[in-house]
Amino acid sequence: MVAATLAFGDVVAALAATSLTRSLIAMTGAEPADSIHLLIALLILTFFCLRLYAGCGPSSYERFRLRAIGVIGLVAVELLVGVPNAQWGLLLMTGLGDGLCLLIFGHYTEAMIRTLLIRLDLWGASVVLVGCGENSRKMAELLVHQPSLGLRPIGFIKTSSDRDLHHAALPLPLIGAIADMDRISPYIEFAIFDSVDELSALTLVPKAWTSSCRFLLVEDVHNLQSLWLRTRMLGGAIGIEIRRDLYLPHNLVLKRAIDVLLAVPLALLLLPVILVLAFAIKLVDPGPAIYVQERIGRNATKLRTFKLRTMYIDAEQRLEEYLRGDPQARAEWQSFFKLVHDPRVLPIIGRFMRRSSLDELPQLWNVILGDMSLVGPRPFPTYHMNSFDPEFRNIRVSVPPGLTGMWQISSRSNGDLQVQKAQDLFYIRNWSMVLDIYILLQTVIVVLSGRGAR
Known about the structure:
Elements: H1 2-26, H2 36-49, H3 60-82, H4 88-119, E1 125-130, H5 134-145, E2 151-158, E3 174-177, H6 181-184, E4 190-193, H7 196-200, H8 206-209, E5 214-217, E6 230-234, E7 237-241, H9 249-284, E8 290-296, E9 302-308, H10 315-325, H11 327-336, H12 349-356, H13 364-369, E10 373-375, H14 382-385, H15 390-396, E11 402-404, H16 406-409, H17 417-429, H18 433-449
Helix pairs in contact: 1-2, 1-4, 2-3, 3-4, 10-11
């Protein structure tokens, strides 16, 4: 059912995408080739081969990356097949238009279907966690709170190291011991191990190795997190190769080129919105509608960022008085540098802009100037940056700051300093153009939902 639903969603998205492309091209007086149904059939077959119709993973970003690979392959086939029969200009317009629309429409359609399947409890493969230690418990809580990962935990398997276990401390039921794996494994799809020793202990249960249950070894290596891991057998050892792409000069040039190509038309398109919001601000509180805030930019240089004003002119005085009289609010401020009930924010228009992130729109000018990128770690004020350790600060300022980033599409204001650090490091260590596009598309969803905004 999951595979059929996902495939049906892709058919609908592909029909809409290819029809839109051909309608726009037809408006220019050209006649694009009518090969929609063949393209869609090839697209569905490609996605099936890439395992995009399995409800047990991979992660949302990995699914997007595989989708991008499939769409690029389809566009390449479309161009190659059409070369003998079409003009180059028309062929390129059709191929690139199909590719862009297929990627965007397909991504958003899959996101809606996945959300629906999660709510119906139809998404994800059944999982047991082998071992009841702290790492297994953290993994269980992670999978429970992030069902989009496609792994649905149902319980724990006790090992020999869990002799003094208190069952009440487990977030999920205890469903057996390691010796019971031959009985349990036919009814589950994945078993997650948090240590090599526990996985090796399974050799004592030969029947478990012959079942259809798949094994995952999960090691807690936050400082080595990477989307680009490759494993190699080195005698009796396993080697892990880790890539780092963002620091390569040609990638920084490519990132800058994409920023300019996208930021200039976006700035022109959104200029009327910025002017309307600026007028509304001045109606609520006299003073400049756009203000300049000094933040930390790349290489620790001072960055003057532009923002629509969402606070009163005397915002800092209001904040100081509020924190002085409310210890709980002071603790919240020290953890997040955000407040749920912020006395500085303008009524109605200020809260609307902060919830929708529209106050950040003038920073498109920072992107055009080259001070910022569309995607990257958000530029923080000095007091916020000084809350991190020196090593992380050095890593963070080594890349261009962004208008949006990993933190904005995941935790947003709900993430404390440690969450911000982890997500910024994840982006810096795993950068790719596909990841940037994924973050931009997810930003639209987050902004429209208003999730985590303050």
